[in-house]
Amino acid sequence: MRDFLVVRYGLTLKQHIQPVHQPTIQRWVQAVSEQLVNTNGDLLASYQQVINDVYGRVPWQFYWVLSQYWDEVQQFWQREVPAVPLEERLLVHGQAELPKLWATLARRFADTLAVAMTLNMPTVATHQLSPQLLSSLWQDDQIQWTQVRQLWSPLQGTFTSDDPVTESWLLQLSEL
After folding, report:
1. 105-138 pLDDT, tens per residue?
2. CA 116/CA 60 separation, integer angstroms
3. Which residue, 9, 23, 119, 140, shows the most beta carbons closer than 10 Å to its own?
4. Which distant-in-sequence residues (6+ apart) come within 8 Å of 73 by Cβ?
C-alpha cells in the first residue's frame, strides 16, 4: 500500500508542491500510509501515531510545511486510498477532528518550549509558562506559525540521522 501511494503521490500531488517542500510531503505520505492499515483507514489516528513517532526527531518546520498543503493532502487521501488495489477496499475516515490534532500539536510545542526555557528552574515554572505559550501559539483554532518561529528560533537544535539523504533533508528543512 505504501509503495502504491508514494507512486500516486509522485504522479499527482507532487506537481502541486514547491520543490523544496516535496521531500517533506513525501515522507508524510510514506509514514501515514504505513499507519492507515493499522488504524483501518482512520486518518486522525494515523496522524496522531505518526506525530508521536516523529516528534522530537524533526524540526518544527516539518509541521509548518505540512500545514501549507493540508487541503491538498486531505484530498489525496480521499481520492487515492480507496484506489489501492487491496482485496478489501480501505476507506479513509476521521478527518472531522483535525483541528483537535493541530491543537494537540500546539500544546506539545508549548510544553516543549516551556521545558526548554525553564531548564534550571522548578517544575512549577514550566507548568506556569506552558499555558501562556499555548495561548500565543494557538489562536482561532490555528497554530500561529510566526509565533512558533519566533519562540523556537533561539532553541533550534540540530537534527541528525544515520542516513545521509535524511540528514540533508533535515538540514534543509530546519533552514526554512
Report:
1. 999 999 989 888 887 776 777 788 899 999 999 9
2. 14
3. 9
4. 13, 25, 28, 29, 66
